[in-house]
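Friendly challenge for the regulars: who can give me the structure tokens for this chain first? No prize, just bragging rights.
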Amino acid sequence: GAREIYQTLMGQYPEHYAYQVAFARVLVAEGRGSEAREVLDNLPPEERDAAPARGVRASIEFGEQALSAEEIAALGDRTDSEAQYQRALRQVADGHYDAGLEALLALMKHDRAYNDDAARKTLLQVFDALGADHPLTVTYRRKLFAMLY
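First reply, four minutes later:
Bragging rights claimed.
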């Protein structure tokens, strides 16, 4: 699978750090966040702090904060703010940034004060993880600004 391909590429091209970041992303998708964090921690500082690695690190953190898929399913048809927030967090953790950002914006419109402004704070964390120039950051920063002002 993908893991084996990236392991081979990392062995052949150890100086191509994009392979290590991609490998970490595969580990996150497999639910192996602690192993992915180890891969990222072994990158040189300038690579560790670059947007691609920050994005993977954020996915790890969102994954640790989010409810599991089974717990999300157990929420059923609940539409309260906590359920909305947890669904949005799970979407972000799973790499479905567009849907997660849209859900966080909707929660802000519906219940801005929820959990000490958690939706807005999480939006900003996702923007940071994606990087300032990422198309979703640009789009949703604009939507956030329009909503606030």
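The chain has ten helices and no strands. The mean pLDDT is 93. Your move, everyone else.
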